[in-house]
Amino acid sequence: MIKPCAGGQQPYVSETLYFGRDKPGGEVSSEEWQNFVDTVVTPRFPQGLTVWPAYGQWRMASGEIIQEGSYVLHVMHLGEPVSDVAIGEIMESYKNNFQQEAVLRVQDEVCVSF
Fold this sequence. Notes:
The chain has a single domain, classed as Alpha-Beta Plaits (2-Layer Sandwich). The chain has helices spanning about 30-40, 80-100, and strands at about 10-20, 20-25, 25, 50-60, 65-75, 105-110. The strands form 2 sheets. It has a 4-stranded antiparallel sheet with strand order 4-5-1-6, covered by helices on one side. Strands 2-3 form a two-stranded antiparallel sheet. The radius of gyration is 15 Å and the shape is elongated. By secondary structure, the protein is an alpha+beta fold. It is about 25% helix and about 40% strand.
């Protein structure tokens, strides 16, 4: 359940996903990323989203630390179960399509005004 907000604000869930770009044989290209956003993300969150490139590091299950470029996706939603399912589908699709071990998900309850 989303926390109550002050007057003039609405409760939302803020989701930030981190997608590593390294894949077997190279990197996820900007064209592949855009196609992923267009065909997988946008149909699930047509109301809006924000993406940006980033760089970071990740400790693999094997213990190896890798440094790589990444993409970050941010969406806001009302906390309904269908949105939670959609986020899970986005994560699984990326892992399957680009042979990723994981996609990092950060979720927070926020209050917003427009």
